[in-house]
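Re: the request from the purification team.
They wanted to know what the chain is likely to look like in 3D before they choose a buffer screen. I agreed to run a prediction and write the result into the notebook, where they can find it.
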Amino acid sequence: MKLERLLSIIILLLNRRMVQAKELAERFEVSVRTIYRDIETINGAGIPIVTYQGTNGGIGLAEGYRLDRNMLTNDELAAIVTALRSISSSYGNEKHQRLMEKIHSVVPPADSEAFQRKLGRVLIDYSPWDGNEQLRPKLQLLEKAVDYCLIAEFVYSNADGEMSHRIVEPHRLILKGKQWYLQAYCLEKEQFRLFKLKRMKDLEIVPEKTFTSRELPVQARTSDPSSSEPSRATQISLCFQAEARHLAEEWFGIEALCPVDDGSWLVKKAYPENEWLYRFILGLGHHVEVLEPPHLREIIADRAEQIAKKYRKEKPT
């Protein structure tokens, strides 16, 4: 992804006087145009990179510039490796591993043991318990689509279970709440949307179809998936029985719980009202009761009754 590619380019240019854009593009499996955009980003961060013209030309650091090793402390380098290792648990590839190896190489041998202890202080694992085998191919395809500005097509199931064929311009991948999303411009809706990768199937990228990146509108720059999924927000009140306090704390946090005189716990939250909300409430089990709003109580009661009927109906003799 872009962060590790930028760091890799910087480290490479520190060790080599000059490198051609085509070589960088082949090394990182992106287009030459993407490499030049990366160079602009690095320049904007205050590291002067210049382009030399001619037969022996290429890209290099400005004459006399040197990135001091002390610019990054061991704690800062350990933080970078920890972040890369964490993201690799959900989205791992060889590029992550190569970058972590390069960062390890700049740590002095005398500090190696202490550096390893720093890496062991925190482990963040985003991978699901049931593995990530089906998700990884989608991530790899979509990363290629973002880097090369390629049109993507897929069948999508929304929160209400409605299926539709989508043709989109992929702009970026977002990891939010252990879930991967694609932020893309939907050609049918003519606006930016967020698509959950788990709801995609038959994903394909079209090599012969490219697009010009659009500037994200203000409302699409947030990493909050719910902000790009239009839905009405509903203020709900949930009452948890005393013995289900741990369940309320797990889902909402201890600060969200209000004690009630009978020993139960009250939680008030606003959620977009859709199929996900109904399934979520039903999944909390029989220790939870919806108090408000009345129409949501009726919906949950009706669905719970339908579930009960399925289990109570007589088996055929």
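For the purification team: The CA atoms of residues 4 and 95 lie 8 Å apart.
Please add any questions underneath this entry.
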